[in-house]
Request: fold
Amino acid sequence: MYSDDLETFSGSASETSESDSTDRSHVEQQSTSATSAKPRKRKCPPRKRVFKDNWLQVTEFKNWLSKKTAPSGEMKPFCKLCTNWLTCSMTAIKRHAASQKHQARIKTSATTGSIAQLMRQTTNSDATTSMEIKLCAFITQHNLPLSISEDIVELLRSLFPNDAALSYLKLGKQKATNIVRQVLGFDYLKEMVALLRSRKFSVIIDEATDKSVKKQLAIIATFFDIEKFEVQVLVGRYDRN
Reply:
């Protein structure tokens, strides 16, 4: 009796295990088929980056960042110091700004003036030189002492305080003397020679020695100017040590 019951129990248990394994395999097949049937996600195309004009207003980028058309036809950020094209991204621009090459270029540009500044300095220098020559010519034409050159410069600065050329003007007695002798004197001599060669004239020569035992030769030429209808007198002096 007990043996029959054991055989019946064992038979039912084996059937139960077989059914469980069958169900488990069926579930696994369903899950595998469901997984294989699941559609794959499509990859999104890369987002097109566009240049933002507000990047040009950032204080850190204002002096070197510009907006230019790249060879591809797109508007991209361009570094004027490094002459490099950058990616349309704030992160890329900041990474370039922190690079060693860019930092070195910034230090170099800080010590070197721009072309506009150099041109401005050259223009002011030319204007200052012209003022110095004209002031010396005015002083000699009116037989004024060259020592008043500094006073004239101070007077002009007080009258025109915003003039850039006057701010660079420095004209002392010694400098004025050199301008009269080495600049105006040579030009005046060339004009006198060209003028005397074109007409008849008379010459008066006088030698003298001053207290410093310095020999001097004064030359005076006179001629009649037909255009002005008056007698012109040209005076020259030759110093010899």
